[in-house]
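EI: anyone free to look at a 333-residue chain?
SC: sure, send it
EI:
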Amino acid sequence: MSLVTAEKNHSNGAVGGGVPVVATNLSADATHDQATPRTDNSIEVPKILSAEQVAFFVENGYLVLPDLISPEEIEELKSDTVALARGQYECEGITPMPPEYSDQQVLERVLCIHQPHFVSPTMEQYARHEKICGALSQITAAHIAHWDGSVKCMQSMLFVKPPGFQGQAWHQDEIYIPTRDRSLVGAWIALDDATIENGCLWVVPKSHKTGYLYPQRAHGNDDEFDFSPESYGFDESQEIPVEVKAGTLVFFNGYLLHRSRKNRSAIYRRVLVNHYMNAWSLLPWSLQDGESTATADRRNIIPVAGVDPYAWKGVEHPPKQVFLRSCKALSEK
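SC: here you go
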């Protein structure tokens, strides 16, 4: 009832960090009518947002929630970041570091780890965080009139971003992780204070509203940004910085234009970003032989709120593998 997956590491994939590749077949649940969605498996989460906050997200494409993560939780995530960077989880993608290396020596070699929840139970735990998923159950597909609050997660990204490391040029996450209903949402957990100096998030408010995916090109500025391409063709003068304190959650829609600049400070800018979508939408993240865009559906997902209507398909078990993002600062080490 499961399948094994592998991922290709695309160094220029801003969010994807590798596209799921199905390795074998997934058997259906013989006890359930495959023509009927599953609605008997609901996950209950607390509703923590006001109607005004939901409306702000729908209108502006992002929402900032200070102090959603406690100081103790931040320390747990920071500790697990070190464990991942040291290679303490048996997996492909990270070579175990010598035990005599300090935490700083370990962390200063990492820009971003893609899919840490594939190997770390702690990172998977935070993908399921009750308060985060509660907020997501209110905003993810709030633009759809009859949405019932069901949400699934398909990706995690752990940014370490040491001093001197590059940011990421303008992009929209749905370029890399397509949904059928414009419901992709990033949940950006600040583990350090994020400032203009250390490379905070910048967004263009309301840039998600038309549902237009801007074209991309090489940015030609490897000193400022990593090797991912940049989106272009819009008015950059509308951008605003999103400076936040550690423990803040920033939610943003997959069509929202956003970027981050180089870390010019002497401190890290650690962030865990998980990506979610409406559980009723198929996930055509990649096409296999014989599939169509209309029916492709990757099942390497975690249901986190409401129902999983496609549970009868089973789920893909992720590989014991993570993926590292590159940038100029890393290539010069």
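EI: The mean pLDDT is 91.
SC: 👍
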